[in-house]
Every structure is written in C-alpha cells, then in structure tokens.
Amino acid sequence: LIALVAACRTAHPAGEETQVAPLTSTSPADAARQLTARRAQLTGERILLSIRATNGDRSQSFRAQLQIDNSNRMLLTAYTPLGTTAIRLYADASEVTFVNDLEGTWWHGTTADFASSFGFFGTTSPYSMALLIAGLPSDASLTYDYAVAGLARARTGDVAITYDPPSYPPKHVTIVRGAQKLEIETLESATTTASVAKPEAPNGYHCCVAPRL
C-alpha cells in the first residue's frame, strides 16, 4: 500500500492543482446548468480511482489515475498492487494508444477501431467516458438524469452509467454493458492546468495487441 501511494503521489502531472468543489445547486435543473458550465470552463482534471472490473464471472480490482484536459485528451493509468504501472490508455479526438506494461505489448488505432475491438464503451469515445467518470456531461447524444447534487444516470445505447449517490464530484460510478461492469470509487479529485501527454511504448514491446477488459 505504501508503495502504491508513493507511486500515485509521484505520478502527478506538472501544473497547478485545486481540489474539486461540490456544486451549490438547489434543483436538478440548476445542477445541469452548473455541470454544463464546469464542463465549458474545464482546463484539466486529475482523479485517483479504485476500480473493480467484472467480465462475466471474472473480476479484478486495481487503483488507477485518470487525467483529462481541455484539448479532448485523456490518459488512464492503472497500477499493480506494488504501485508499478500496469496499463496506460490514451485517447484524443481521433486516436487511441494502449500500452500494456504487464505483458509488454501496445496498440494504436482510431477511436472507431477502439470501439470495434474493445467494445465495452459502445460507440462512446474514451474521452467522453472519462468526462462521465469525472461526473461531467460529455456527448450531447447521451441521455442524462440529474439530481440536486449532480448526475444520477447517463445512458448511451446499451451502456448505462449510474452515480450512487448522485453528486459532484462523484463518489461511486458504475458502468454496465451486458455482462461487463466497471465499479469506480473516486479517492481524490483535483482540477489542474497540466496537459495530458501521449505515452510511448518502450523499445521491445510487441505491437499490435488490442485492449480488452
């Protein structure tokens, strides 16, 4: 645990950080307006997460750090129990890079390629899903339900996102598509001025192994 905390603490991107403040809304409609404004004013956000991934009868839990910026870039870094990097998933408006540091493989393709190979997020882009994990509305094509303190639910196709309790920043987010599920707990959330950097696969990593849940 000490090693993991140290790894997460030293992996902060460069830039000024401020703890994310809750909404001051008094109604679901007011919450929707405030979240839309937060999304428009976003410079960047860094979130420390605890994730449990389930695929049928298999499940795995891990810590992760999610970074997003205002240039449609996101980076999800998952850690091993010892605090070393397990996987890195990067995406911008048009491309996705997946680096599997556990298996020494990497993959690169378009967001459409990612949707067809990974499939868990449906047609939602990784960046849009990152915003939803942060508790912010993303793609206008999604259906949203708001509560007084933040998002309650979002849906796109057969992918359902639930916030329990509805709040911003979120405490618990569940993403479900069929037999696949992500249960996400927010441990730390801060706004940041840092930009998200695209990761590079070290020499010797094998291409091109597509990501999977």
Percent of residues in β-strands: 35-45%
Using only C-alpha atoms, the radius of gyration works out to 16 Å
Choose one word for the global shape: globular
- State the share of residues found in helices, binned by percent: 10-25%
DSSP summary: helix tally: 4
Secondary-structure element order, N to C: HEHEEEEEEHHEEEEEE
Number of strands: 13
The multimeric state of the shown protein is single chain
Low-confidence stretches: 1-10
- Average predicted local confidence, pLDDT: 91
* Biggest beta-sheet profile: 13 strands, mixed
List keywords for this structure.
single chain; 213 residues; alpha+beta; 13-stranded mixed beta sheet; globular
Task: Describe this protein's structure.
Strands 1, 2, 3, 4, 5, 6, 7, 8, 9, 10, 11, 12 and 13 form a 13-stranded mixed sheet that branches. The protein is 18% helix and 42% strand. The protein contains four helices and 13 strands. The chain has helices spanning 2-10, 28-41, 111-117, 126-133, and strands spanning 17-19, 44-55, 58-69, 74-79, 85-91, 95-100, 105-110, 143-147, 150-156, 159-163, 172-177, 180-192, 206-207. The protein is globular, with a radius of gyration of 16 Å. With 213 residues, the chain is of the alpha+beta class. The longest helix has 14 residues, at 28-41.
